[in-house]
Amino acid sequence: MVIGYGISAIILPWSAHERVQSLPEIGQSKPIIQLVDVYKEYTAGNISTAALKRASFQVFKGELIAIMGPSGSGKTTLLNMIGLLDRPTRGSVFFDGLDVSKLDDKTLANLRNTKLGFVFQTFNLINRLSVFENIELPLIPKGIPRKVRAEMVKEALAKAGGDERWLRKKPNQLSGGQQQRVAIARAIVGKPLVILADEPTGNLDRASAKLVIETFLSLNKAGHTIVVVTHDPEVANCMEKIYVIRDGEIVGEFQPNKTEALINKT
Ligand SMILES: Nc1ncnc2c1ncn2[C@@H]1O[C@H](COP(=O)(O)OP(=O)(O)OP(=O)(O)O)[C@@H](O)[C@H]1O
Ligand SMILES: [Mg+2]
């Protein structure tokens, strides 16, 4: 990555940070997701906002990435590009080698539903459905037999640190941290290539946040590729790599400071 301007201009919310070299290593496999000089402008009336400016970003298999930045800096906009939820105003997005601009909306939606898993700050579970049905939802369009679906739901919930006793409950009968683990189970049940999470601990107390982050760490250990947007340095420091975004620009890539991580691994 080309660092756009002096690193000294960045005030980082954690100490003892270290800039890391982010050029692809020789022999490194192709990225699953690649953004090349992506711009995103939002226009409302005659006011135009440049939410992303010349963002170049790559996600490789097995990575555990944090995207950090202040409110309004473009984190969600960036995640929407990575997650194929929106198209750039300019620039290119490649997913698994495919140029996304060449795909129609239906193909894009299909790619998103089969290859990506999403986790949101507000969980986005459906309260009139049971926990089981919520986790099962992404499997329904795939025509997977009911019995197999049931096994996949149980496996996903176990991987997400959940309890089988939750399956018959409604989401609002669980705590926030438990609901987020159900949402993670829903995100992983279809075995996506990448899990994308937007402020997954934003609505949680510290104890629940810890459990959710522990879940992400164990999923990453099991081979899942994960990108987490957060403005919480203690959460970002749990990841393996931190990208910082300010005013729509990715201004650097940093190594986490494990001594200031929510889950202290050192
Ligand atoms: N749909 C939209 N229409 C117009 N402007 C938008 C839209 N979505 C985002 N923006 C603007 O783009 C900029 C980046 O927004 P974005 O939601 O990506 O920030 P963020 O870093 O995720 O912030 P937060 O931490 O508050 O969630 C902001 O100035 C925001 O007001
Ligand atoms: Mg946001």
Unreliable stretches, pLDDT < 50, 5 or more residues? 1-26
Distance between the termini: 28 Å
Helix content: 25-40%
The largest sheet has its strands arranged as 1-11-10-4-9-8-7
Looking at the structure, the CATH topology of the domain at 60-85 and 104-260 is: Rossmann fold
Helix-strand sequence: EEEEHEEHEHHHEHEHEE
Our count of helices gives 7
Describe the SSE topology.
Blueprint: E1 18-19, E2 33-44, E3 47-59, E4 64-68, H1 75-82, E5 90-95, E6 98-99, H2 105-115, E7 116-120, H3 131-136, H4 146-159, H5 176-188, E8 194-198, H6 206-221, E9 225-230, H7 233-236, E10 241-246, E11 249-255
Helix pairs in contact: 4-5, 5-6
The structure holds adenosine-5'-triphosphate and magnesium ion.
What does this structure look like?
- This protein is an alpha/beta fold and 266 residues long.
- The chain has a domain at 60-85 and 104-260: 3-Layer(aba) Sandwich (Rossmann fold), CATH 3.40.50.
- The protein contains seven helices and eleven strands.
- It has helices spanning 75-82, 105-115, 131-136, 146-159, 176-188, 206-221, 233-236; strands spanning 18-19, 33-44, 47-59, 64-68, 90-95, 98-99, 116-120, 194-198, 225-230, 241-246, 249-255.
- The protein has a seven-stranded mixed beta sheet with strand order 1-11-10-4-9-8-7, with helices on both faces.
- A hairpin with a 2-residue loop joins strand 5 (90-95) and strand 6.
- The two termini are 28 Å apart.
- The relative contact order is 0.20.
- Mean pLDDT is 89; it is low at 1-26.
- Residues 42, 44, 49, 51, 69, 71-77, 231 line the site of adenosine-5'-triphosphate (ATP).
